[in-house]
Structures are given as structure tokens and as C-alpha cells.
């Protein structure tokens, strides 16, 4: 998916300027980034702490989202990553410590989700 990824500050909160908005990432402290890139996910996860910004949730921009992913700070260190997709009967909860690995894995996982209005990708064999 190609989109501009310029971050702007709006009332002290980061907001990404994007061409299309299929999903958003929202932190407990009110930060929101639409269609976050892997780098934006690294930034959001890096900003998490154990007092007032303990989680970030990523889900489609629709009334009744069928999937979501979340990253939460664990008391003992590291992060809990939850992924749920009701259309595929998926629900997985894991723990990890590497922010870059978490962001990469979530970016790959989200790329495989269905988004209403997004062009369908076709694969052909030669």
C-alpha cells in the first residue's frame, strides 16, 4: 500500500497524514496514527510505559471491526501482543521484548487482513 507518511503534531498529539485510511493505531495516551507504517509502529510501541500509556490498539476504521491487534506493556518487562480476526477464527496472545520484531510481525499480519474499499491484490502464476 502506497501512502504519504508525514507526521504532524496536532495539539501535542502525533497524527499521520495519509492518502487512504483503512485502519488506525490508538495509544492509551490519545496518540493516533492512521495506516501506520512499520516505523510508526516502532515509535508507538517505544512510547509505551507502565504508568499512563500502557497499550496501543490497531484496528480497521469501521463501526464493527472484525479484527484487531494490541500491544501492552507487561509488569515484568516486555510486551503482550494480542491478535484477533473473527473472520478467520484467529486469536493469538504472545509475549516479546524486541520492539522492531513486534512492529515487523504486526505489519505483516495486518497486510494480510481484509479492508473494505481496498483494491484486491491478485497473484498470478507464469
Main sheet specs:
6 strands, antiparallel
Secondary-structure element pattern, one letter each: EEEEHEEEEH
Described by its quaternary structure, the protein is single chain
| Percent strand | 35-45%
Tell me about this structure:
The protein has 126 residues and is α+β, with helices and mostly antiparallel strands. It is 17% helix and 36% strand. The protein has helices at 38-46, 99-111, and strands spanning 6-10, 13-17, 23-27, 32-34, 55-60, 67-73, 79-85, 90-96. The strands form two sheets. The protein has a six-stranded antiparallel sheet, with helices on one face. Strand 1 and strand 2 (13-17) form a beta hairpin. Helix 1 packs across helix 2. It is globular and about 45 Å long.
Q: Which features characterize this protein?
A:
126 residues; 6-stranded antiparallel beta sheet; alpha+beta
Q: What's the short story on this structure?
A:
This protein is α+β, with helices and mostly antiparallel strands and 126 residues long.
Explain the layout of strands and helices:
Layout: E1 6-10, E2 13-17, E3 23-27, E4 32-34, H1 38-46, E5 55-60, E6 67-73, E7 79-85, E8 90-96, H2 99-111
Antiparallel strand pairs: 1-2, 3-4, 3-5, 5-6, 6-7, 7-8
Helix pairs in contact: 1-2
